[in-house]
From TrEMBL:
It comes from the Bacteria. InterPro entries: DinB/YfiT-like, Maleyloyr_isom, MDMPI_metal-binding. SUPFAM superfamilies: DinB/YfiT-like putative metalloenzymes (SSF109854). GO terms for cellular component: plasma membrane. One of its GO terms (molecular function) is metal ion binding. Pfam families: MDMPI_N. The lineage of its organism: Bacteria, Bacillati, Actinomycetota, Actinomycetes, Pseudonocardiales. Residues 10-137 form the Mycothiol-dependent maleylpyruvate isomerase metal-binding domain. This is Uncharacterized protein (TIGR03083 family). NCBIfam families: maleylpyruvate isomerase family mycothiol-dependent enzyme.
Length: 259
């Protein structure tokens, strides 16, 4: 997926999230986001879009304040029409800001070494919105549908960020993953294949096009693989099969979340 498609998906996924609002109890808890109810989830999405929009609009070495992104509980306004309009406006504004900046527009990011551009934020916000739409769908018990190329790009991004050396500083427990024979293959068939290689000095996650085998293989639709690695659902609750060492899969999933 390219920059323009990521901008488009921010708006598309927000529209799908908005469409699920009527009839939803906004005080219902969101199990995949402990401590949040649906209202807090929606406010987080809208505030995140506005925060990233401000980050991209005025390039700086430091981000703007993000209190509104984090302090999303306790709101009393639950009018679904007003909240839906607010969500849609934020997504549209963010997409427009990103497009004005262009893919190479400079922007602060939390990731070092060459990723400080609007491209990073367009992709991150597209998949942030995707996953929080999944959170909302899980609350209401609705089927979560996602285009295979969007799901595959989400796995690609997850692998790229999860392989960054800085993750050991952010999540020291991930060092426990390293060891001989620790490989996990995510096989999404025509949707893509990804190897999680933990046998070296660093985590190496990413696409593979060969016929490599692994200690553990998880096969299933790419959307289900995406939900699994973001820990929105357990493997047993998804349409996936696990071959090989299932204990390694559990050990890995317990330590690799970053979003």
């Amino acid at each position: 997926m390219d920059f323009d498609r990521h901008c488009t998906e921010i708006v598309t996924q927000t529209g799908l999230l908005r469409a699920s609002l009527p009839g939803v109890d906004q005080r219902a808890p969101v199990p995949s986001c402990p401590g949040w109810d649906v209202n807090a989830l929606l406010r987080h999405v809208g505030e995140a879009h506005r925060w990233i929009g401000a980050t991209v609009a005025v390039p700086s070495d430091t981000p703007p304040p993000q209190d509104a992104v984090r302090q999303v509980t306790g709101h009393t306004d639950t009018d679904p029409v007003a909240l839906g309009d607010w969500l849609a406006d934020g997504a549209e504004q963010l997409a427009a800001t990103l497009r004005r900046a262009g893919p190479d527009g400079p922007a602060w990011t939390p990731i070092p070494d060459g990723l400080a551009t609007a491209t990073f934020h367009a992709r991150r916000m597209a998949h942030e919105t995707v996953m929080h739409r999944a959170d909302a769908q899980l609350v209401i018990g609705a089927e979560f549908d996602l285009a295979d190329d969007v799901a595959a790009d989400g796995i690609d991004e997850w692998c790229e960020l999860g392989s960054l050396p800085m993750m050991f500083d952010v999540h020291p427990e991930q060092r426990e993953l390293l060891g001989p024979g620790r490989t996990i293959l995510l096989d999404g068939g025509e949707g893509g294949r990804w190897m999680m290689d933990m046998t070296g000095a660093r985590l190496d996650f990413g696409r593979t096009t060969g016929d490599e085998t692994a200690t553990t293989t998880v096969r299933g639709p790419v959307t289900d693989l995406l939900l699994m690695i973001f820990r929105r659902k357990a493997p047993g609750d998804l349409d996936v099969t696990v071959e090989g060492d299932s204990d390694l899969l559990r050990f890995w999933l317990d330590r690799v979340s970053f979003a």
